[in-house]
Amino acid sequence: MKIAIQTSAELTHVAKLIEDIPIAMLTTLDANGALVSRPMSALEMDAQGALWFFTDVQSSKVDHLRAVNLSFTDRDQGSYVSLSGHGEIDSDHDRIKSLWTMFAKPWFPSGPDSDNLALLKFVPDSADYWDGPSSKMVRAFGMIASVVTGKPVAMGEHGSHTALSASTLATAPAQPT
Length: 177
Known about the structure:
Layout: E1 2-3, H1 9-18, E2 23-29, E3 35-41, E4 44-45, E5 51-56, E6 68-74, E7 79-90, H2 93-99, E8 117-131, H3 136-149, E9 157-162, E10 170-176
């Protein structure tokens, strides 16, 4: 995923947490109010923190972008990020061409000129993250110590970033998990 220089410390932190996670689970509400998730490959995080994906304009998800969640998981590094926001459809052909990757060809055989190809722009409002120690041994020790003491020990930090798409950004302090 391409990541632009972010406009705030909060977005920079989110970018750092997700930069090496190639697939996110995108969750929307369907017409009946049920949660529906599907894997999506992020193409870019622009300077305002929006995440860009290819999508088929005939997909049912494009009608349900008012409330969207993206979840990123890097189990090996002990990092988990949940982003809440909304989605928008963008048909800018020049932007589609600039983001094109051959990995999208199985879904869009005509390349960037495929008839149903568009961009899904995810605009984050808030982020929750759990960032554990990157060492599996440290995480295992923390888990054992947590069981023994009956409270979380050395499990990393949990925090939130709010108002990510607003001009005034707010941050909830990170808390040990």
